[in-house]
Amino acid sequence: MSFNLRAGMAYDLEPLGAAAGLIKAKAANQYQMGDEEMTNEKQIIRKQIMDELAKIDKPQYEHDSYEIAQLLFQDPLWKEANTVGVTISKSPEVDTYQIIRKAWDEGKRIVIPKCLPKKKEMVFRTLTKFNQLESVYYGLLEPIEAVTREVPANEIDLIIVPGLAFTKNGYRIGFGGGYYDRYLAGFAGQTISLAFTPQIVVELPIEEHDIPVKKIITVKKVEKMND
């Protein structure tokens, strides 16, 4: 996994009240960071967030995932969406299996990302059963091409965008592949991210191509931005 950062910033992990972690940006120097330095800073941030998420035990993980999902199901962007794009979650991400089941129960069409590493691109394909998934690199689950159909971006109403760290104005750091950043550049629909408390940070490095999500849903709270 690899990442990226704003010029001249260093990041310290500090407690968020009595709850989990929070990354606070502090000016370190004034020079313009190069790509390698930005990548190193993002790697530091990812490790800090992963370390905090590792402290969440299974009962708390299940509870928080459920609470976040309930807020999502009440959100107008969810209610209005007919086709929803979502990843198959892998720890420490918010559980999406319950979200997919709920979408099927409500008659929504679920589409799952399929990465094309040679092209460094991503497409979404239909999913109507969990046995239409296969394990690919790093144990990620993706749609089996032979039994699923590709869906163009203009048919997707809502994408639930994964990430590792998020700011309250919607910017995010992902897991390092850059697939969502490239896909969202040509996506005109709605976007929501789901996050545990340690994943919400004060500030992150932002690059010109970064596109913020419209909403972030955490436990007991919905952050709305970028109307």
As residue ranges, the low-confidence spans are: 1-32
Distance between the termini: 31 Å
Global outline: globular
Number of strands: 15
Please describe the biggest sheet, giving its number of strands, its sense, and whether it closes into a barrel. Answer: 8 strands, mixed
Structure description:
This protein is an alpha/beta fold and 227 residues long. The protein contains five helices and 15 strands. The chain has helices at residues 35-53, 58-74, 76-80, 97-105, 179-184; strands spanning 9-15, 21-27, 83-86, 109-116, 121-126, 133-135, 141-143, 150-151, 158-160, 165-167, 172-173, 190-194, 200-201, 215-218, 221-224. An eight-stranded mixed sheet has the order 8-5-4-3-9-12-14-15. It has a three-stranded mixed sheet with strand order 11-10-13, covered by helices on one side. Strands 1-2 form a two-stranded antiparallel ribbon. A hairpin with a 4-residue loop joins strand 4 and strand 5. The longest helix is centred in the first third of the chain and has 19 residues, at 35-53. The protein is globular. The two termini are 31 Å apart. The model is unreliable at 1-32 (pLDDT under 50).
Keywords for this entry:
single chain; 227 residues; alpha/beta; 8-stranded mixed sheet; 3-stranded mixed sheet; 25% helix; globular; disordered N terminus
